[in-house]
Design goal:
0% helix; little secondary structure; elongated
């Protein structure tokens, strides 16, 4: 149970191993200073 994954659920009471997609912060606008092609969030 790791909040650094998109699938994280704070209400879960057991780890079923479903957390597979890491949270990657950055901007998805290619001309922004903090642009990250792998970003999942803006």
């Amino acid at each position: 149970m790791n909040p650094n994954y998109i699938e994280f659920n704070a209400l879960a009471n057991s780890d079923d191993g479903s957390c597979a997609t890491p949270v990657i912060y950055g901007c998805t606008i290619d001309y922004a200073l903090n642009y990250n092609a792998f970003s999942k969030f803006r």
